[in-house]
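Researcher: Structure for this, please.
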Amino acid sequence: MKNLLFENGDKMPTLGLGTWKSKPNEVYKAVLHAIQVGYRHIDCAYVYKNENEIGQAISDAIAKGMVKREDLWITSKLWNDAHLPQDVLPAIQNTLKDLQLDYLDLYLVHWPVALKKGVGLPTDPSDFLTKDQAPLADTWAEMEKLHKKGLTRQIGVSNFNSAKIEALKANASIMPTVNQVEYHPYLPQEKLKEYCDNNGIYITGYGPLGAAYRVADNEVDHPILLENTVLQEIAAKHSATVAQVVLAWAIEKGVSVVPKSVNFKRIEENFAAANLSLDNEAIKIISNLGGPYRYTHGSAWVGEISPYDFSDIWEECL
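Model: Predicted structure, token format:
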């Protein structure tokens, strides 16, 4: 398994298990099985509402001697309703309690969008906090305090474009070390990745397999990545699945990926992608498949009721 190395010596495995939309009573088994298979990177978030089950799985795996805490990489995220300075510390404390951990390996600001306390998804203008009411600089200052307290070894962001990260530089004493964004061959995020590479920021790709369904956006039908015939040909050549090829491509590009699954067979197949090597020709072909197609639209955060727009989150406004 390849790792991404941080300045302090921390190593983040390039392939992890995503847990978004993993249902109750499924995510526990999925995490436990993933650890048995060899996963050491688990991607979580408060808003997924399943960190308590994930925590129990981690605790049980450690108790059974399957893994040591120091061998795991656990990521979680600060939800949008906890951006005000007084809410940041309690948020990570709640996550640590649910995960049954003393510290996280990585804590991310989930979105550059602020909501009032207790709001999950906004339905009214009053659900939002404006950029002036909840400046990202203030939120980030509290993230730095979490790092200094030892509650998280690394701090980063998620769904941030280069402009948002650049704005943090003005007052930051610690720069984000990771930016988690949608990343796959139909959305290779070349401009954003170049910016992150130049600033010592790793990319973690969520949704690395695209979507399992078609997405219609402005009358454009977004295709299913895993049905791409070119990818199918490359997979056949390598005696691999298309999913394995797509994951291996991202890893070869220096990106960590967190595909979500509760299916034991897919969990095992995805993990095997870490051992798949692609030649330069295949990587070049995959990098130029087409698109860009964005499957995570972020439409909940923009529109008539919101003080934010797509330029606040996406590098390319698709």
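Researcher: Any notable elements?
Model: The longest helix spans residues 85-99. The chain has one domain: 3-312.
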